[in-house]
Design goal:
Blueprint: E1 3-8, H1 13-24, E2 31-37, E3 41-47, H2 50-56, E4 66-72, E5 87-88, E6 94-102, H3 105-114, H4 124-138, H5 143-153, E7 156-164, E8 171-176, E9 181-184, E10 189-192, E11 204-207, E12 212-217, E13 220-225, E14 230-231, E15 235-237, H6 253-259, H7 261-269, E16 273-274, E17 279-280, H8 283-286, H9 289-294, E18 297-302, H10 304-321, E19 325-329, H11 330-333, E20 344-350, H12 356-367, E21 371-376, H13 382-386, E22 389-392, H14 405-425, H15 430-441, H16 443-452, H17 454-464, E23 469-474, H18 479-493, E24 496-501, E25 518-522, H19 529-540, E26 545-551, E27 563-567, H20 575-593
Bound molecules: fructose -6-phosphate.
Length: about 600
């Protein structure tokens, strides 16, 4: 949460910083601000989105070769001009932006208040900045040293970037828990929460690690630990093009990312799955295959949509590999005292690879000796780097706040993982294995076929856009998709929605059913089909409106549902990937019909780097 950008070099800093902020807006959009060094420190900030700040400062002198910028997802203090970053220190000489939370800020604030400091904002950031300045003045040291001393007292998570009037070409940066990438150009450096602000300038980047401090000048990048020892920056080559983070003619990133799924799923399978040869090549699994074969238990940790992927993986892995699987919310797992035994494997699932709860959960598990396997989309992200092994989802940058293509990528990777382990363990028959490989290989084409009928979902969306609540029901492999469908609708349309196992509906939620309640059934042909048909009858008997996602050729459900949407036939293990697509499109069209900014729905942020 929160996006940070920085630039120092011969170019004009402002256009680079403001363009970078637009690309990072998915990380928060409560307020925007920039600080520029040009003979002195100039700070412009405002509640609202990047475009609003841009409009507000037209005509100002924005000339500068060193600047930082911030887009905020509010934690301490409501979204407002005064709480917007950058903050300036009491002397007015330092400016700072921050992504994260300073947990002991109240204590630090008390100490500073006792010394006579006053604060204009309610933020933890302003407290940390003045704490740094206070150390700088008292210890008569430079900013770098003051930051180092201050950070030893700080608990919480942060990426901070600081400007100092006295060193007009230097940005001081530090990280713990939140992401920081430094782009290395010719006589210039770029900083960002991810690599998107620097893509057109350089492909050479350094991922800064926790407890590292960077002194960034146009011609020099010095990395140090908090003990003031130098660290050699490890330069990585980015494998990402600018086009991947642009809308490419679509109205919204969300739609672009939904439509991209035939190719993102294909990219995920490419080079790994060969149905003809009957092989799955996943080096991350292969390197750890003995651990997986002997695993007593797999514990999956994730949040939100990624948690839904974990839940489906539980069903698939238990069925195919006969390994017990537990699925944990990372935020719960990290704070309880979970039992982790030798032979347990932790699988962390995350699109961003930066979700604070998931990251800390696996750090704790690692300390207890667990093997960590990451299923991550963002290459080089914190979770990817901390994992002992892993498999990337290869869905490409996901910009829309609601996860779409990353989710189907996770499902594809987790299914391949299950198949590979089952094959190695001998818990799957050759015929079933071969058939599932063929089924998986056919997914991109079937997703394309579903997308061709997107207009049908638009009509359904328009019919139900006025609903105040909705239920999503599924059984077996489709139950996690019901949860995902409900989550998507909530976040994109602000309609209250609940996902349930279809049979569980009788234990409470059925009380909500009346002629105004849309009930979405994910009712593709599988071993539960007859059971779910009965559940549909139960809803219809109470006059609920049934929207059913069904398999082509189903001639039973159309006679009882109010609306149906067909998906191609598939094995019941593979079908959930297909059923996901109508869930995404339905939410998208309802959101659009209601005028919601689907790429940036209210209160949300893409990368949840605070707990
Ligand atoms: C929902 C959504 C969130 C994320 C969750 C975890 O559409 O995007 O629920 O799935 O915040 O994020 P990652 O996968 O980045 O760890």
């Amino acid at each position: 949460m929160c996006g940070i950008v920085g630039y120092t070099g011969p170019k004009e800093a402002y256009p680079i910083v403001i363009t970078g902020l637009k690309r990072l807006e998915y990380r928060g959009y409560d307020s925007t601000g920039v600080a520029l060094l040009n003979g002195g420190l100039k700070v412009y900030k405002k509640k609202g989105r990047v475009a609003e700040l841009e409009d507000a400062i037209v005509g100002k002198n924005l000339h500068s070769h060193t600047g930082i910028g911030h887009t905020r997802w509010a934690t301490h203090g409501e979204p407002s001009d005064v709480n917007a970053h950058p903050h300036t220190s009491a002397s007015g000489k330092l400016a700072m932006i921050h992504n994260g939370i300073i947990e002991n800020y109240a204590q630090l604030k008390k100490e500073l208040t006792n010394k006579g400091y006053t604060f204009s904002s309610e933020t933890d950031t302003e407290v940390l900045l003045n704490f740094i300045e206070d150390i700088k003045e008292n210890n008569k040291c430079d900013l770098e040293e003051a930051v180092r001393v201050a950070l030893k007292r700080v608990t919480g998570a942060y990426v901070i970037l600081l400007l100092d009037e006295e060193n007009p070409d230097t940005i001081i940066a530090a990280r713990k828990g939140s992401p920081l990438v430094i782009g290395v150009g010719k006589g210039e450096h770029f900083l960002g929460s991810d690599a998107s602000p620097m893509l057109e300038y350089t492909k050479e980047v350094v991922y800064v690690n926790d407890y590292e401090l960077a002194i960034v000048k146009p011609n020099e990048l010095i990395l140090k630990n908090l003990g003031n020892e130098k660290i050699t920056p490890f330069v990585t080559k980015l494998d990402m093009e600018l086009a991947a983070i642009e809308k490419g003619g679509y109205d919204h990133f969300m739609l672009k990312e939904i439509v991209e799924q035939p190719s993102t799923i294909h990219d995920c399978l490419r080079g790994r799955l060969d149905a003809n040869a009957g092989t799955i090549t996943m080096s991350g699994i292969q390197d750890n295959i003995e651990h997986f074969k002997k695993a007593n238990r797999i514990i999956m940790v994730a949040c939100g949509t990624s948690w839904h992927a974990a839940l489906l993986a539980e069903y698939i892995i238990e069925e195919l590999c006969r390994i017990p699987v537990e699925v944990e919310y990372a935020s719960e797992f990290r704070y309880r005292n979970p039992i982790i035994n030798k032979g347990d494997i932790i699988v962390a699932i995350s699109q961003s690879g930066e979700t604070a709860d998931t990251l800390v959960a696996i750090e704790r598990a690692k300390e207890n000796g667990a093997i960590i396997f990451g299923v991550v989309n963002v290459v080089g992200s914190s979770i990817a780097r901390i994992s002992d092994g892993g498999a990337y989802t290869h869905a490409g940058p996901e910009i829309g706040v609601a996860s779409t293509k990353a989710f189907t990528g996770q499902l594809a990777v987790l299914t391949m993982m299950a198949l590979k382990i089952a094959k190695e363990k001998g818990t799957i028959s050759n015929d079933r294995y071969k058939n599932l490989l063929l089924e998986l290989e056919a997914v991109p084409e079937k997703v394309s076929a579903i997308l061709k009928n997107a207009e049908d979902l638009k009509k359904i969306a328009l019919k139900y856009k006025g609903a105040s609540d909705a239920l999503f029901l599924g059984r077996g492999y489709n139950f996690p998709i019901a949860l995902e469908g409900a989550l998507k609708l909530k976040e994109i349309s602000y309609i209250h929605a609940e996902g349930y196992p279809a049979a569980e509906m009788k234990h409470g939620p059925i009380a909500l059913v009346d002629e105004n309640l849309p009930v979405v059934f994910i009712a593709t042909k599988d071993s539960y089909h007859e059971k779910i048909v009965s559940n549909i009858q139960e809803i219809k008997a109470r006059k609920g409106k049934v929207i059913a996602i069904i398999t082509e050729g189903d001639d039973v459900i159309p006679g009882m549902a109010d609306d149906v949407f067909y998906v191609p036939a598939a094995d019941e293990i593979i079908a959930p990937i297909l059923s996901t697509i109508p869930m995404q499109l339905l939410s998208y069209y309802v959101g659009i019909a209601k005028g919601v900014d689907v790429d940036k729905p209210r209160n949300l942020a893409k990368s949840v780097t605070v707990e």
